[in-house]
Write a structure and sequence with these properties.
Length: about 260
């Protein structure tokens, strides 16, 4: 079933980029684009996920943009509150600094930094307890897709978090479907393949929560200005998580416009 009443989200994942001066310029450029062609928050929400040490400076810069832009943390500690956890930043500390959104479960965290289902469940539990909104990333590898396991893997990743999200917390969950083989590779899932998986995810969510039709399901994996319109036209694609193309203000603005126009 379509989630067409959902306001889409377009979120830029800057990953471990860029240098400070370039980040400031990028935001200036994005703000300029938004002044020239507005993306109303009624049509599409926008978020930027910078490196952790830039969260506050980016937030300050975004706070006076002509439209509301959320500052999103790229990750969060599995520990709560404050304490002797060297190198960690808890959800409570993020919220204390005004950061309300966080990516959890990005495939780079899962694959390179060992974020397994237990660690992800802890992160989600504490982030939800701190009242954060979570963009929970799921997606299959090329090998899993080629062996016909894609749906099973993705639905399992959704089930992995079902026990930690309380009934009243599902409205603070956004799902990002990111096939690993499409991330940073220039290969995008075809709109049909992406829509098929998004519909399956929607079906899975509907089995877990009555909120299923209200949860935004973003697509991620080489989204660019050139393919955004087609992806935005799919019934269950409620926005995009954008890596590489979010480092270019013109492209990122075009992607947000594509989703906003589709939603008008
Ligand atoms: C990502 O890292 O979340 C991502 C989708 O990257 P890219 O757009 O570069 O494929």
């Amino acid at each position: 079933m379509s989630g067409s009443t959902i306001i889409p989200w377009v979120v830029g994942n800057w990953k471990m980029n860029p240098m400070q001066a370039n980040a400031q310029q990028l935001i200036q450029d994005l703000k300029q684009h938004l002044l020239q062609e507005v993306v109303s928050e009624h049509d599409c929400h926008i978020g930027i996920a910078p490196i952790s040490i830039a969260l506050l400076s980016v937030k300050t810069q975004l706070d006076d943009a002509s439209v509301k832009i959320a500052t999103v943390a790229q990750d969060v500690s599995r520990m709560a509150g404050t304490g002797a956890y060297t190198g960690e930043v808890s959800a409570d500390l993020l919220v204390d600094s005004g950061i309300q959104f966080v990516l959890i479960g990005h495939s780079e965290r899962r694959e390179i930094f060992g974020d397994n289902p237990q660690i992800l469940s802890d992160k989600i539990h504490y982030a939800l307890n701190a009242n954060m909104t979570i963009i929970y990333c799921v997606g299959e590898s090329l090998e899993q897709r080629e062996s016909g396991q894609a749906e099973q893997i993705v639905l399992q990743q959704i089930c992995d978090i079902a026990s930690v999200v309380k009934a009243e917390q599902w409205h603070n969950i956004i799902i990002a479907y990111e096939p690993i083989w499409a991330i940073g590779t220039g290969k995008t899932a075809s709109p049909d393949d992406a829509q098929t998986m998004h519909a399956k995810i929607r079906e899975g969510l509907n089995q877990i929560t009555p909120e299923g039709n209200r949860i935004a399901i973003l697509y991620g994996g080489s989204v660019k200005a050139e393919n955004a319109v087609e992806l935005a036209a799919c019934a269950d694609i409620n926005g995009a998580l954008v890596g590489g193309a979010s480092l270019n203000a013109t492209s990122f603005h075009q992607i947000a416009l594509a989703f906003a126009k589709q939603n008008k």
